[in-house]
Write a structure and sequence with these properties.
By secondary structure, the chain is an alpha/beta fold. The chain has helices at 13-22, 39-55, 69-81, 94-97, 106-114, 119-122, 140-147, 170-178, and strands at residues 2-5, 29-32, 63-67, 84-88, 127-132, 152-156.
């Protein structure tokens, strides 16, 4: 089973396309939607949804995939739920780059401060990170500097921020899912 978390643009047709691409790895791909506007509500909602979905599968190696803002959530929810994640151009600092787009962006700071101390250290090796060299929204180098200490980072030279095509990384994602 693969659980997919969309980015800030929840209605983008690219979400359906990425779900379709991920079905080449696992027939059971489930889109988990969330508001994107209310961080504390989104965190509780997503944690509940992921835990519910984990109870509904026999897959011993489920995977959580998040793009953009979904990558922010995937990393944290995956850690709390004990499952591996793939972070695609994760928005690691939404409180900095989303004011005016969401209500209460300061809640992301509060969530980060309340998260388990040094959770990335405890989660080392349990995430795979795909970063675009040509990300027009986020500073990929800043993300790489932080995440490469804990996770494998794969650079992509073709895809923009929304990462419409995962196809060149399917082998890596599939191998990561199957890895114990």
């Amino acid at each position: 089973m693969i659980l997919y978390l969309h980015g800030f643009d929840a209605t983008s047709p690219g979400n359906y396309e990425k779900v379709r691409q991920l079905q080449f790895i696992d027939d059971d791909v489930r889109l988990l939607s969330y508001s994107t506007l209310y961080p504390k509500h989104d965190m509780q909602h997503l944690l509940n949804e992921v835990c519910k979905q984990l109870k509904l599968t026999n897959d011993k190696q489920p995977l959580l995939v998040g793009v953009g803002l979904g990558g922010f959530w995937a990393e944290r929810i995956g850690f709390l739920a004990g499952i591996k994640t793939v972070l695609v151009n994760p928005n690691l600092w939404p409180e900095e780059n989303m004011p005016g787009k969401i209500d209460r962006p300061e809640e992301y700071v509060d969530i980060a401060q309340k998260c388990v101390k040094e959770f990335r250290l405890k989660n080392r090796g349990r995430a795979l990170c795909l970063l675009s060299v040509n990300d027009e929204i986020l500073d990929s180098q800043r993300s790489e500097t932080l995440l490469s200490q804990y996770y494998e980072v794969i650079w992509d030279r073709q895809q923009p921020h929304k990462f419409p095509s995962l196809s060149s990384h399917m082998v890596s994602i599939k191998a990561f899912k199957k890895q114990l």
